[in-house]
Amino acid sequence: RKEEMIRDSPPKKRKTDNSRLDRVENPTSGHLTQRSRTWFSAVFLSYYQNQNIVESGEEWDLFLEKMREDLPTSFRLHTIGQYENIMKEQLHAHFVGNEDMLQVEVDGQTIDIDPLLSLSWYPDQVAWEIPIYKKAMRRSPIFKKFKAFLHNESESGRLSRQEVVSMIPPLFLDIQRDHKVLDICAAPGSKTGQLIEFLCENDRETRGILIANDANVSRCHMLSHRIKYLPTSGIIVSNFEGQNFPALPYIDNDGNENVLLFDRILCDVPCTGDGTIRKAPRAAAKWYEKGGMNLHPLQLSITKRAIELLEVGGVIVYSTCSMNPIENEAVVAEILRNYKGAMELLDVSEQYIDFIRRPGLKTWKVSHKKKFIEEYDPEFSLDRSLFAPTDEENEAFHLERCMRVYPHLQNTGAFFIAVLKKNEIVEQHGSLSSLQTGHLKIVDEVPKKVKRGYPKNFKENPHSSVKEEDHQEIISCMKLYNENFQDILNFDNLVQRSSGKVMTVHLVNDLVKSILLYPYPDEESKKILRIINAGERVFQQDASRSIKWRFCAETVYKYARNVNGRILTLSHEDFTKLLLAKDGEFFRNLSESVAQQVELFGSGHCVCKVESDTSSNGLVFVAFRGGVSINLFIPKNQRISLRNIFLSENYEFVNPEETKK
Predict the structure, then answer these.
(1) Active-site residues: which are they?
(2) What is the average per-residue pLDDT within 266-280?
């Protein structure tokens, strides 16, 4: 009875001693990892050996050995914004091919390290990896510098610290600029950032939409903060339970009422996370046998809801960071069984062939009362969806088309991915409206249970068009930069959140605007629309200044090419002086060119453009021109990062955390 209780219940929290770590060097592989004394319970080992996720014997031992090692350090450069080329230049100038990074001295012993390399299967050489664990970076000056670089640029929104396997699912969505995309379980937002980059390829504005959704309102706010450096007018951050995501009504370009259906949906569903044990060893201690079975209904309901919201011909990528077939193939098999030909599991084996993966499982076992059951039997009072398909079903389902990623294949975490296509209309349900279209019925449906992180009373103000007085003021201020600014930017698509004094204005595209401003029959209906954020920040109010509205720092680069008034061109030397100045720099300390330019316009906000060269690449910033000085509007963390970039020969790479200390 005691053993049965251990199997069926989550384990109690254990106190962990993080100092009990053994270092592992493998000179032949060029890896320096940190082997934690990760404890795998007998139940864990027995469960996965019975599932035959890898071959027994030598491969099983190699799999477990790799699971006990820390992950390599990996990251992805952002391809939206004005820093992409600069980041690549910095990476190659300081770290790629740096001989000092090929060796590290630990406890008096010199260890050879494999070089920093881009991932061959990821497009445009923006994903990178080096096989060294985080704590080892503190042992060597060059790696300490590299760690500070990663921290600075991550905080500044120029790269994402992201696990390699986490980068895979968005690639298989094959997103185009005009697609309508839903990330149904989006937080913390690394994959959402990839989706934005694919929608806005080559930094061109999307004609479609991306809705990044999460059930936890706190994580939604964290997500909004994370993607603010990837600005797009086609983004909405929402707070719905994935299984109850509403069918959002909008008015199309022809003036017809319609319901938003998506071309692509990413279902990176909640899971037990045992594939992340290398990154979070405590996941091994938290693992229990019934965890996958407990999450299986939620995973299934989220995926079914996604299918209902998918256009015919659309694609869903279902993914988890779990190795458990109950959370993976069992969910996919039930989807294929339930929709009987309307959904197809796609064969993507010819895509990204440099990324090594294993086929999905066709058979697995369900653990019940200390026994492993292979075939469904009503006597056990277990759902049919938990069990492997019959032989006949296996011939139709092709579960081998699923993808399994294991740590020992390419030194990554474990992951599961399946790509599904919708071939026919399926039975639908939804919420928010009784609206009906030709093939989609929407009925009222409100989540019955309110979970932690999903507040019943949503406190965010709804979006609305910018007030007329603010609208005219913004236009008046922007005409100082370009007399024809109304032809450059669609001022009718400016929206605000606050019902009182508006400090920031967002720009949205036509589709996002139609969703935000849909004419609901009453205010009560509109409250169900749980929108955290939408569009990109474009204008910010500064009522104390002579020019009350200015560009936002994150998006000014998009409009700088159309600015012909109140613009200041800075030389590389002038720009570095402004970076070093804490509270601005006097005109007299800058070049004569600056003094001549500032005479052309009075005090107030302006746009600064750095002369293009190999390092600055024509960067654009917002600044304030005072009576005798000028000050750049650059946040502290970004200012430190830019100092490192422009003064790297004289400056050490400073970590903001260290400056605080």
Answers:
(1) 321
(2) 94
